[in-house]
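Re: the pair you flagged

First of the two:
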Amino acid sequence: MIEILAEKYVIKDLEGVFLVLYSFPVGCKPGRKRNFYRSFERFKKDHEGEAYFINRNAILCKKLSIAKAIEELARKSGGSARVYKVEADLTGSI
């Protein structure tokens, strides 16, 4: 699912570090959240190192297309999401 969504954004793809913050509202059906996490885990297996969890509700991505696809997947799964471009990492861990 993420790969299909990512294809929409390839035209305006940028490389860099992008942060996806997402959340699911209280009362969101567990199946919808499970769909999001399963889709993301399948994607990670095929695209190792391109996106990974840094927190329960935060994912770092190396391409804008991937970040936008994850944002859209979260919304289709009943959640909300935002994508941010990371300009500087003050801890040096990226």
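Second of the two:
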Amino acid sequence: MSKSKKSTRDRYPGLAQEASELGYSYGHLWSVISGRRKSRSLMEKHAEYKRQQTEAFRAARVTANAPGVTTGVSGSPGLKEAATR
């Protein structure tokens, strides 16, 4: 029994969206990230893009974990809101 190869999309999830947001084609970005092509400017832009994404994710987590912030499921009130009713 042979192992199935992981698809490129499994190895680089979200790459198509990143490529379009950076203004490059998926194939070019994939080639540079996988090491088949060299592009210093693209690698710098991609690294900056990833840094911004990470900062935005961290900021969202901090905001979500702030005191008084409640989260509900599909519009239902959060636990704190339900407890005060």
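The chain is about 60% helix and 0% strand.

-B.
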